[in-house]
Amino acid sequence: MRVEIWSDINCPFCYLGKARFEAALARFPHRDAVEVVHRSFELDPSLGEDDHGQVVPIIARKYGISEAQAAANERGIGAQAAEMGLPYVTEGRDYGSSFGMHRLLHFARGKGREEQLLDLLYRANFGEEAPLFGDTERVVALAVEAGLDASDARAVLADPERFGDAVRAEEREAAELGATGVPFFVLDRKYGVSGAQPPEAFTQALTQAWGDRPAPLTALGDPDAAESEAVCGPDGCAVPGAVKDAGA
Amino acid sequence: MRVEIWSDINCPFCYLGKARFEAALARFPHRDAVEVVHRSFELDPSLGEDDHGQVVPIIARKYGISEAQAAANERGIGAQAAEMGLPYVTEGRDYGSSFGMHRLLHFARGKGREEQLLDLLYRANFGEEAPLFGDTERVVALAVEAGLDASDARAVLADPERFGDAVRAEEREAAELGATGVPFFVLDRKYGVSGAQPPEAFTQALTQAWGDRPAPLTALGDPDAAESEAVCGPDGCAVPGAVKDAGA
């Protein structure tokens, strides 16, 4: 069974939702048969590399609420994070373009280090005072902590072409699947769960999707194709009418 | 609807099967709703960069058949290619490691040029006399013909780390889906078609998979999550209990 999770480093409910999903997964009896795949989503793809800063004034300006309200929202999210045992700096977090981090996550995926890097990026952005956006060397240090090579990470971050199309392709896929916000959980491309719902909701979704998981592929066409039709395998090409292994 | 095609540049039936599938797709009434994705498969992943040469003696030695038999097989495949109007040099084709070409195809995928490059690689390997394997500059020239930048292509071919994990991940996926040879066609991860079957078999498979295509995602959890639960979207984060847009 495969669970895909669309999320953004800028999204506090993605940070919480990941922990809530993982709490449900840890108790799920078939957890070892569940493959979790992370997918890219930017809350604001129009942000440039240099558009970053403290979240409270940015959010207040962007959505037309007072800074007091934006700060109250942050404290509300912080209280929810505390319930999950997650650190949350309610006055310090940054907001900015996550495009480079998503590209780096794709690079990390190829090295089997995406999960580690994602957790470290969340922790750094939501749980630590130091700003994350705009500080390439801090991101590089997290990449190293996740097991990547510093110069590799620097090279990926410096070149927007690296994994840029991969990030955008996943963002398009989210839209095609009907996601308008994140976190967005997709189970076997059949069920969708939107938001940082309580662990019980994820338990229910995992249970339902497991009961309804895809069957093995159904073979169509000539069922004896591998013998009688035109297939190449590690033992050569099965040519119809030819004696493949004569003389072996 | 999505059709994934696992194939190898070394596999003549992949070359034929692609043309047969495309003939069926061109006549399929819902062809514009079919997304075709190419996947990597190596008939012989153990080959090194320098293990290449004329196919007839290599195949004869590898599978313990006489060179006359191997040559007869090639002529049999050539006759099938001719029926599809595909050029096939029955005595000249090369056999070698396709790992670098698969990596380059992944790079081309990100540039929207994979299909073009795959067709050119097939055409060069099966339809032209000049050897393809071991001639990096010939592969680079095909990449340029496909619309890629020569220095980009050279850089990808020179570094086995570039897209190496992506190639191997798709090869693992083929094994997980039960493929033992190629071409291997997977329709919506539900139906599998093995081999270069006749166009009618692909027409039948497309029709069946279309009739049975996946429904949109079923929402699980709190259906009003976007309003009442914790989601971040382009308009900010919906915080339960908070008045998000007061003051707007």
From TrEMBL, chains A, B:
Residues covered by the DSBA-like thioredoxin domain? 3-206
Q: Which organism is it from?
A: Mangrovactinospora gilvigrisea
Q: Is the keyword Isomerase assigned to this protein?
A: yes
Say which domain of life the source belongs to: Bacteria
| An MF annotation (GO) of this entry | isomerase activity
PANTHER family documented for this protein: GLUTATHIONE S-TRANSFERASE KAPPA (PTHR13887), THIOREDOXIN SUPERFAMILY PROTEIN (PTHR13887:SF41)
The protein's name is: Protein-disulfide isomerase
Keywords from UniProt, A to Z, are:
Isomerase
